[in-house]
Amino acid sequence: MLEDKDSSGKPEPLNVSREATKTFPGVKTAKTPWREMGLKDQEYELIVEKLGREPNYTELGMFAVLWSEHCAYKHSKALLKTLPTSGPRVLVGPGENAGVVDIGDGLAVAFKIESHNHPCAVEPYQGAATGIGGIVRDILAMGARPVCLLDSLRFGPLSHPRSRFLFSGVVSGISGYGNCLGIPTVGGEVFFAEPYKNNPLCNVLCAGILRHEDLHKGQASGPGNIVMIVGHSTGRDGIHGCTFASEELGEDAESRRPNVQVGDPFMEKLLIEACLEMMATGAVVGVQDMGAAGITSSCAETAARAGTGLSIEINKVPMREKGMTPYEVMLSESQERMLLIVKPEKVETVESIARKWGLNVAPIGVVTGSGLLEVFDNGEKVASVPVKLLTEGPVYDPPAEEPAYIRENAHFSPESIPVPETSWFNEILLELLASPNIASKEPVYRQYDYMVRTDTVEGPGRGAAVIRVKGTRKALVFSTDCNGRIVYLDPRAGAMWAVAEAARNVAVTGAQPLAITNCLNFGNPEKPDIFWQFKEAVEGMGEACRVLETPVTGGNVSFYNETEGEPVYPTPVIGMLGLIEDVEKRVTPGFKLKGDKIALLGRVWGDGRSLCGSEYLERIHGVVAGSPRQPDLGLEKALIKTLVEAAGERLLRSAQDLSEGGLGVALAESCILACPGARGAKVNLQGVCPAGYRLDAVLFGECNSAVVVSFSPDKEEALRDVCAKNGVPFSVIGEVDGDVFTVEAGAGTTVIKVTSADMTGAWANGISRSLI
């Protein structure tokens, strides 16, 4: 008989139920069950030491899921604490279900990005679908109505059959679940590269709007309050989903499909409406999504935040399968469920609302002052664990070692890449526009409902997403950004560029960047070279966020994105939130009027180093190498300030930031997205070519802090003054034309001359042709 202690400190028998000897599903031996659950030997020893006894099987499962990398952040917690997380607009930072940012007039935005990478690798449709469902519930748990979704996706090259299968399944899962919810999918990004062939990345951002007084938190405060579960019934799906997401994938990856949850979007829609109504009554003291680790995590985390304990009776949990054991109930990751902490006198109110919406609802326990998570099965105690011990797993500081390829890249000379003949530049531009990483993502977003709810001002395919805030003149602007190829070559610089580009993407609309959420996708952190990548990226991200004054409000770390030792590119995705005070003053991409002037704000380096990690270098020359430069964060900050001021003074007709494909692609996209009659441009690069420039680097180099803008000729002086005031280089490089894009490198030297029809054809059909 194992022992526990009651509040008096006296030993109390803890009945070891049938769970103590139950074998883990699919495991032939139970001699070391903690290993099969993902715990290391030293972690099990620590549990025994801290608990003062050996845990029973149910308790061991609870520790295994909450001490998994997915839940405990064992290898990342120490570094994440170095990030800037506070600011004048931050109402809620990391540690809650989502970050919350003040947008004025008593309104706030809850937003967060999370990953569902491992599930998508083995069951792409349900993996993506339940990724949508989980992040929506995180926003709901803050008391906000979810208003939009963005998806940041990574796949292997579409020439691989498996990449095409994963691509199709993930996109279908996003549309199949998201479209049913009535929440528009308004933006995101898709990137294709060899390292994602076996490990796709599916990162989902959700945002919601709330009034300050409607803010809720995931806290089980108030001993005597009732613990309730509402939503879907509990089944055996997704058990140990979070431990599955905390290990590398191997040859047996397909056998892990039972670890992937199954979603029901119609149930989620009912849950959203019911929970918002419940919270509006004042009945709900605390609320938590049941995501990874299910009832175990939601109970333990809410109690830990409040410094309380919980006592629950699992026999009261609505179940859809017979004979479920305490272990299975506590670890199930069945979807569309929420944990509520409810005032005793309001239980009937909550039950009535749930029945009205056709949802399962049940009081399953009570908040206590014990600091323990106690689990009963028909009155028999089957688990009793200190909440603090469950939620404060070990924190590791693994060794970090610079990878050998970084040192090898230091010897790469961009000058070894020949500058193409002038006659080749037309073909190069069209080839880049057809690259799936640059080409139109319309084959993806045409499957999404991005106009539902009528709040979408700018949807996918036109830069950052713009969402109207009903009842005001405000608009929210969102962008997700990261170039994993750049991060791979220099993790610190790459993460800085991810923050800078996300901020610039938001600023070109006229929005002021406010804050970020992040999703940090890396390989196995127990390998010194991978942890070095992670450490460098986090430090670079922190530096950029401090300078640009965009605090980190939360996010997600996804490690072990490897298959048989082959990791993904290090991919720290940045989700940026911006605010436009007057949506009518927003700036959009695409030239507007023939005769308007075109200018470059910022700097194009035009040297060999700007080719390092570029789409041009890989697509045209088959090379991924070099050492990308770090951004000039002072210039980035000044450029953001200039864009926001210029938009506020209505000086700009269009704006397009430079990213993949550089200046040449930014100009071409401005023609492609232009209004009829303004789908061409006459450009002369003489004023922006630095000494010793390479023409291919000027046109197609990346890692530039720059934006292409168009404006009425009578606005030139005012725009030049704004740039001068903020210290931003300003160069008029041409004018908008009717239907042909022409670029001259100097007097009479034409290097590009293509029609808008040819550019649009290459850009619009890039992904479709890759799927043939």
UniProtKB/TrEMBL annotation:
Top-level enzyme category: ligase
Q: Where is this region: Disordered?
A: 1-22
- Catalytic positions? H70, H116 (proton acceptor)
Could you tell me the EC number(s) of this protein?
6.3.5.3
Q: Which CDD domains match?
A: PurL_repeat1 (cd02203), PurL_repeat2 (cd02204)
Which Pfam families does UniProt cross-reference here? AIRS (PF00586), AIRS_C (PF02769), FGAR-AT_linker (PF18072)
Provide the binding site for substrate: S115, H116, N117, H118, R137, Q261, E333, S334, Q335, S558
Its GO biological process annotations read:
'de novo' IMP biosynthetic process
Binding residues for Mg(2+) 2: D138, D289
Q: Where is the Phosphoribosylformylglycinamidine synthase linker domain?
A: 35-74
Which domain of life, per UniProt? Answer: Bacteria
Kindly state the subunit structure of this protein. Monomer. Part of the FGAM synthase complex composed of 1 PurL, 1 PurQ and 2 PurS subunits.
Q: Which HAMAP family match?
A: PurL_2 (MF_00420)
- Tell me what this protein is called: Phosphoribosylformylglycinamidine synthase subunit PurL
Q: What species does this protein belong to?
A: Candidatus Fermentithermobacillus carboniphilus
Please name the taxonomic classification of the source.
Bacteria, Bacillati, Bacillota, Candidatus Fermentithermobacillia, Candidatus Fermentithermobacillales
Q: Which gene encodes it?
A: purL
